[in-house]
């Protein structure tokens, strides 16, 4: 892109600006600077044009620094939001996998129950990722590994009923 050479006259001072921007844009910037200087000069008649130019330059420089700081703050917030979004997406995927695993387990248990082999001894626990291998994410509950020994009392079978299902075991417990 060719450089445009624009002649500006701000409070009697002529200057030639060479810029890649359009002439209308550069002229609008010059008009804005002249208006800012005029505002300063009308507020205090004892200020010289040079002092008004310095005050105007300081004001615009201050605005630029504040805008840059605000932009940096916004970039930081966007970065944090993107990290939170990524973390939530990962947690969602993990939850979907867990739901799928549990659905398969339910189907397996229903199939075994329908076949009449639904006794707790016959049911194998599905493989699961050990707690130490699971990623801990902020806000998720910490799961503690259970230790100790557990034994199950074998239910007393009713000889008259050959197929005693898993649920009937609990029903008999409640009757006693």
Average pLDDT taken over every residue: 79
Major β-sheet strand ordering: 1-2
Major sheet description: 2 strands, antiparallel
Strand residue content: 5-15%
How many individual helices?
Answer: 3
Low-confidence runs (pLDDT<50, min 5 residues)?
159-163
Q: Level of helix content?
A: 55-70%
The global form is rod-shaped
**Which sequence of SSEs, written as H and E, runs from N to C?**
EEHHH
Strand segment count: 2
Oligomer: single chain
Structural class: mainly alpha
Gap between N and C termini, in Å? 93 Å
Rg result: 39 Å
What secondary-structure arrangement, pairings included, does this model have?
Blueprint: E1 4-10, E2 13-19, H1 23-43, H2 49-114, H3 166-175
Antiparallel strand pairs: 1-2
Helix pairs in contact: 1-2
Explain this structure to me?
The chain has helices at residues 23-43, 49-114, 166-175, and strands at 4-10, 13-19. It has 176 residues and is mainly alpha-helical. It has a domain at 4-69. A two-stranded antiparallel ribbon has the order 1-2. A hairpin with a 2-residue loop joins strand 1 and strand 2 (13-19). The longest helix is centred in the middle third of the chain and has 66 residues, at 49-114. It is rod-shaped, with a radius of gyration of 39 Å. It starts with a strand and ends with a helix.
């Amino acid at each position: 892109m060719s450089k445009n050479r624009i002649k500006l006259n701000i409070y009697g001072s002529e200057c030639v600006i060479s810029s890649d921007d359009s002439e209308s844009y550069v002229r609008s910037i010059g008009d804005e600077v002249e208006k800012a200087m005029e505002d300063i000069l009308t507020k205090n008649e004892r200020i010289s044009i040079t002092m008004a130019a310095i005050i105007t330059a300081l004001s615009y420089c201050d605005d630029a620094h504040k805008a840059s700081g605000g932009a940096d703050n916004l970039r930081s917030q966007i970065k944090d939001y993107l990290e939170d979004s990524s973390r939530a997406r990962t947690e969602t995927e993990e939850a979907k996998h867990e739901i799928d695993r549990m659905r398969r387990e339910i189907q397996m248990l229903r199939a075994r129950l329908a076949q009449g082999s639904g006794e707790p001894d016959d049911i194998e626990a599905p493989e699961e990722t050990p707690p130490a291998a699971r990623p801990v994410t902020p806000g998720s509950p910490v799961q503690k590994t259970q230790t100790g020994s557990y034994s199950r009392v074998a239910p007393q079978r009713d000889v008259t009923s050959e197929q005693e299902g898993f649920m009937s075991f609990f029903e008999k417990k409640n009757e006693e």
